[in-house]
Amino acid sequence: MPTLIFDCDGVLADTERYGHLPAFNQTFREFDLPVQWSDEEYASRVLIGGGKERMASLFTPDFVALAGLPTDARTQQDLIAKWHRRKTEIYTALVGEGRMPARPGIARLVNEAIEAGYGLAVASTSAETSVRAVLGQAVGVDAAAVFRVFAGDIVAAKKPAPDIYLLALSELGLAPGEVVVIEDSANGLRAALAAGLSTVVTVSSYTRDEDFAGADLVISSLGDPGGEVTTVLHDAANVRPGAWVTIQDFNVILATDPVRNPS
After folding, report:
1. Mind listing the pLDDT tens digit for each residue in 15-24?
2. Is 14 tagged catalytic?
3. String of DSSP letters for 191-260
4. Catalytic, out of 9, 216, 224, 249
5. Residues 24-36 pLDDT 10s
6. Catalytic residue among 7, 14, 249, 257
7. Which of 8, 98, 192, 253 is 20 to 30 A from 237 via CA?
């Protein structure tokens, strides 16, 4: 069956600015680490796929000395795992408090997809607990139960490597031509393209100025009737959506997109 595979952060909700960044900074405070990421600095950390990987980027020689951290790699990895568990707890609590409302059109499009007989999945580098929390908030408990979730450390290499999408294809028993991915970042787009997948990009607060060459459609958001209107930024597949993107637009992409060769 045709299937939509969503990224989580920045696609289902604006989780980076209102969830992950404050959760990272609270974790740093709780562990007495001499760092607080500003919004500007975090914009560069977003380019690193995975929360533990972002934390690992702190381990420069100067920071290790300043914070009195261990120098051996095994102990550093153990510390990162401990910090990340706490960060995930903080983040999940923020989601439960409703701090990160769904992006425009997400719940509507998911309901349209279910009615049209589409399969639904999420493929994300975030921890599975975090992804499921956001998904339930964004689309509702009943719709969330329809999704297959592929998340966290279940693959060796995170985006922009295609591993998470290749795993999803294998587990779902799908060919690339049966899938459209919804992403928000250049790293996510590169991962999807490397897996041979058609991709729609809904730009988010940290990604608007990234390079989205190769995407079938780049838009401001999915849009909603009576709410935010979709602005088309690039339309390589000649989809020509209206004021909001519908499941029919994804039908157009699946029907017209050229065959891709997975790497």
Report:
1. 888 999 999 9
2. no
3. HHHHTT-EEEEE--TTTTTS--TT-SEEES----TTSPPP-EEE-TT-----SS--HHHHHHHHHHSPP-
4. 9
5. 999 999 999 999 9
6. 7
7. 8
